[in-house]
Amino acid sequence: MMTSASRRWLICFTLPALLAFLLGGGSAAAATYYLTIDELAVNFTGKPRQAMAINGSVPAPLLRFREGEEVTIHVTNKLAVDSSVHWHGFILPNAMDGVPGMTFPGIKPGETFTYRFTIAQNGTYWYHSHSGLQEQAGIYGPIIIDPATPGPVAHDRDYVVMLSDWTDEKPEQVLANLKKQSDYYNYNQRTVGDFFRDVGEKGWRATLRDRRMWGEMRMTPTDIADVTGYSFLINGKTAEENWTALFKAGERVRLRFINGSAMSYFDVEIPGLRMQVIAADGQNVQPVTVDSFRIAVAETYDVIVTPERDIPFTIFAQAMDRSGYARATLAPRPGQAAAIPEMDPRKLLTMADMGHDMGDMGQEMGDMDAMSHETDERAHMNHDDMGKMGAAMHDMAQPAPHHGHGRHDGDVASAMHAHPETARAEPAAPRVLRYGDLQSLDAHADRRPTREIALRLTGNMERYFWSINDKKYSEAEPIRLRYNERVRIKFINQTMMTHPMHLHGHWMELDNGAGSFKPRKHVISIAPGETVYFDLTADAVGDWAFHCHLLYHMATGMFRKLIVEPAPEATLAPQTGGGDA
Ligand SMILES: [Cu+2]
């Protein structure tokens, strides 16, 4: 959904910056950007609606920065309400982070706020409003940061694939509906008919027990997503509009997937092509070749594909709840299209997904009938889903997933250069990316954490609020860390929903067993019943947002302030202090 206005958006290289760039070999490069937030007439569904947009475009225009560049970004708010821009996944000074009420006052109607900071990293990121529910209304856009020195992976083409979820309803109405009745959007709610089918299959006792347990958890078996009825977009195009990226056979095509959705996870595949994952959340990882991957809200994954044949391929991104899909095409020529696959069956949550399958609840139930029913239901479910739901947990327990650390340099090197698809002796089962596969390309110094903080992800579906350690943001004390302290954070998901937890201003080093090659992430997704650890060096002083990136979870309380307090000496430069000692 672009208007002519979007093509007029300006990147102005100031003359001094240009001279500095030419004379200084890039070290002092600087550039100035102008962004204007305003309303925009859109039509994604056949019905005209008002969106919120940046420079007349949903998504907002691609910003392309360079590592080491000093950026000056003037953001003017032409809305009738306060707004903001947050640079998602950026390591930057606290005052530039763009969280109203926490790092700055926000941008009042008619005002301009100027962000100034030095780009301290490279990779694929995004930006979005951090005010109210504006992100759902259209204020989100992609960012590419080119590395200061050439990156490890060569490619011939480079495309952003930004996923998002659009609703014709006002986001405030969506939230009001959720609060009124938490299953308002759960179109797939199981019915009385399902109840009698269950009774027929597993008997009265087991069925009633099963129903009672769901009731006690204030959840239903279809609580995979709480908002559905979305139109799913790729780079602002509906599946019918079919955003298309061109290639020539044999080229290495880099696709930068960004999930800019308010609420929707996707399972991504390109039938006929394997994908080599080379970066997660903007950070290079040791290449992993997969057939599909699940992308949590706010995550990014960069993949390389090498189509060897001169035919079109479908980029297929099914919403996790199977309420719809986003679709685009990789094609040798414009206007071509490939078949669109059937969506995989919708998955019903079972007690097993809560981590209760072989544990206490099984004992308590003492009913083999119920247990075998669960097994059956699992067997009928899409194995990919099962793999994704369960695998992460298993992965956490495995010390060294794939590549030995640094011992298989040859493998990594060959994978990263001209031979992406190693021929396989036999066709393998579809390979789904798991967190356990992600290993940083570079080792990071790894102090031992001196403290562990447990954060239980909690909530109440009936009253529709979400919380951490049973407290909403409004009721909770901030988490306090000392400057340069190294801590271990333990997430325990006690809800039926998957939560993408996002920490501002710091890397979360996901403990997936990769030792000093732990992947550095800005979003960590935790499945129902799962426990996940990450390590953190508190190397940026200030008040930072730490929250679930599902928009309506964040808005209803799954949010904390994380304060990194200055060192007692106060001699350390704020925000830019070094990492591991
Ligand atoms: Cu959440």
Q: Please give the share of residues in helix.
A: 10-25%
Quick check: average pLDDT? 80
Q: Could you say how many structural domains there are in total?
A: 3
Ligand species: copper (II) ion
CATH class descriptor name of the largest domain: Mainly Beta
Would you give the CATH topology of the largest domain? Immunoglobulin-like
Give the total of beta strands.
31
Topology:
Blueprint: H1 4-7, E1 11-12, H2 15-24, E2 30-42, E3 49-54, E4 63-66, E5 70-77, E6 86-88, E7 112-118, E8 123-128, H3 134-137, E9 140-146, E10 157-166, H4 171-180, H5 192-202, H6 204-216, E11 231-234, E12 243-246, E13 253-259, E14 266-269, E15 275-280, E16 283-290, E17 292-295, E18 300-305, E19 313-319, E20 325-331, H7 360-365, H8 368-380, H9 383-397, H10 409-416, E21 451-460, E22 465-468, E23 479-482, E24 486-493, E25 499-503, E26 508-510, E27 520-521, E28 523-526, E29 531-537, E30 542-548, H11 551-555, E31 559-565
Parallel strand pairs: 2-5, 4-9, 10-13, 12-20, 21-24, 23-31
Antiparallel strand pairs: 1-2, 2-3, 5-7, 6-8, 8-9, 10-11, 13-18, 14-17, 14-19, 15-16, 15-18, 19-20, 21-22, 24-29, 25-28, 25-30, 26-27, 26-29, 30-31
This protein binds copper (II) ion (CU).
